Structures are given as C-alpha cells and as structure tokens.
Amino acid sequence: TLARVNDMVQRATAAGRRVFEVLDAPDELPDDADAKALEKVRGQMELRDVHFRYPAETGGRQSPLVLEDVNIRIDPGQTVALCGPSGAGKSTVLNLLLRFYDPAQGQVLLDGRDLRSIRRDSLRSHFALVQQETFLFNDSILDNIRYGHSEATMEQVIAAAKAANAHDFISKLPSGYDTKVGERGVRLSGGQKQRISIARAFLANPQVLLLDEPTSGLDPGQTRETR
C-alpha cells in the first residue's frame, strides 16, 4: 500500500509542477497601466500599416515577416472574407484582432482605438471566435453550447443550434442536448463538433464574429445550410 501511495504522490507532484509552470508564466501582453474597459462597441475594425512576425524562440533567429504593410478596414455589419493559400496570414490577422499578439509595426484599431489601450478582458468580451480545430469539453452538448453564455435559456440554446444547423442531429441522439460528448468531443464527428462550436458563437451574440475555416469538416450541403 505504501508503495502505491508513493507512486501516486510522485505522479501528482509531477503533474502539479507542470500546472504551476503554466499558472506562474509571465504575461507576455500585459494591459497598459491606463488601459480602459469598453462598455459599448460598434464593431469597426482596422489594421493600419501593420507589419508582423511571430516571436523568435529563445536564442533563435528572427522569424520572417508574416504580414507586411497590411491595411484593412471592416465597418459594422460588414462581412469580409480573407482568402489565400496556407501560410498567407489569414489566421494571423484574426489573432491580431483579438490581441493574442501585438503588431511589430502599425496599429490594430477597434472603433478608432488602439487595442493596446483597451483592457483585454473587455475587448474579448465583445468577440466570438470559431476555429478550424474545435475544442469541446467532456460535458453535455447543452453545457458546451452554453459555454459563452452560461445563463442562456433552453429556447435560446435551441435557436442558436438551429441557426448552426445542429439541432436536427442533436435531437436524434439518445439523450439529446444532455448527451455527453467525451474528451474533446471524441463521440462526435468533425462536422458535428464544428456545428456545436458555431452554435456556441451564435449564442454568445457578439458584436464581432470571427470564423477561421469553421466549416472544413462539413460537406458542401451542410456548409450552404449553415451559412
């Protein structure tokens, strides 16, 4: 028994060390001292003379420019699609709009304000991002859709699922919206996971909706219906 307990303690110690390394990691993009929260957002986004390269690894060579002299303006209510081959910088633009990174040169603006002057928690509360690689929690479909809006009613959840073309397949599952999806949604197909992720974004009802190839796992008919 003591040998088993010792093994459990050693495993827990190693796991705990890795967890605390993440928790204690320094903030690479701290808010400015005078950064302010945004109560209302119109949703006008702009990249102005933006240059960007990903940070080099410690002791590594400087990475090449991913974006060079990029200027984009997106007005409220406007839908914009970025097209290009893999590695062209489409996902990088979305990362800059959410301030996962800061540009090496130039500005990223929301309603005319530089993102560096806005508190990140306030900034991201007005956005929803649907990524190509969907992450679902080992919980029910209902709770996964409610992740961005925990107090949503069942009617609101169903409306969001219908808008994402997910309600029909959810209704056919043995436990419906209470179906457990497994770790990272292992019990669902790639297309089903993406539709749940889209429903989650619709339910959050953000001012700015960012989609990073969210329908790559859907067949053409499902893609048209979701759009």
Can you characterise this structure?
The protein has 8 helices and 6 strands, in the order αββαββαβααααβα. The protein is an alpha+beta fold and 227 residues long. The strands form 2 sheets. The protein has a 4-stranded antiparallel beta sheet, with helices on one face. The protein has helices spanning 2-23, 90-97, 120-124, 141-145, 154-163, 167-171, 190-204, 220-226; strands spanning 45-52, 67-74, 105-110, 113-114, 127-130, 208-211. The termini are far apart. Helices cover 34% and strands 14% of the residues. The longest helix is centred in the first third of the chain and has 22 residues, at 2-23.
Topology:
Elements: H1 2-23, E1 45-52, E2 67-74, H2 90-97, E3 105-110, E4 113-114, H3 120-124, E5 127-130, H4 141-145, H5 154-163, H6 167-171, H7 190-204, E6 208-211, H8 220-226
Parallel strand pairs: 5-6
Antiparallel strand pairs: 1-2, 1-3, 3-4
